[in-house]
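User: Fold this; tokens only.

Assistant: Input:
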Amino acid sequence: MPWKWYESKVVKIADASPTTKRFWLETPLEEPINFIAGQFVTMDLPISDKRLKRWRSYSIANAPNDKNLLEFCIVHMEGGAATEYLFNEVQEGTTVKFKGPDGTFTLPEPVNKDLVFICTGTGVAPFRSMIQDLHEQGKPHRNIHLIFGTRYADGILYRAEFEALQQQMPGFRYSVALSREEPLHPADFPFEIVSGYVHQLYLMHYASARPDVDFYICGWSNMIDEAVANLLVTLQYDKSQIHYELYG
């Protein structure tokens, strides 16, 4: 069955970090958008005469809703045609055509294992969608550990939201790795934070292989490759417990 194409309008744009923006797209209510938390859409951007060079896929960063409103968290890629267009030409009111939603990077129903979400940068988008959906809909779940990595503290995406969820959402835990922030003062952060990379966090917390946990990983391919190798070889988890989606 072919994907459906939607005509949407950009209704809001906001800075998320020095290199990242949040875009909200809205479609007419007579065209309901049904998606599962963790899925993506493919935008057709006016950046080339060739169809496949115009298409870019972005994960939906918000939970399913009845408002036909989709949020995307997109990092600027220097010289990248798509993000140059999105960051420099798109304004509130701009029309964006997209197809989907699609993708199988989604949670099972019901969730009957602990969840460990490992991500860097805008790889947090599908996990935010999943966490919002579980929290807002009151869906049953076990423990959730979000492990996020970026270079500097000003690149911690959705920081205030995840800080608040630690108090509001039973079983939710938030950890951050900053690879280039020096000096790092952990007392300034109301969540677990380390200087380094995401790998040291899950290696520390999940050193003893457990059958009751599933790992979901999203980010650049080299991060995913290292994480999968660590989980399979170093920590001896079963491959059925590891799920990932790469970008770039």
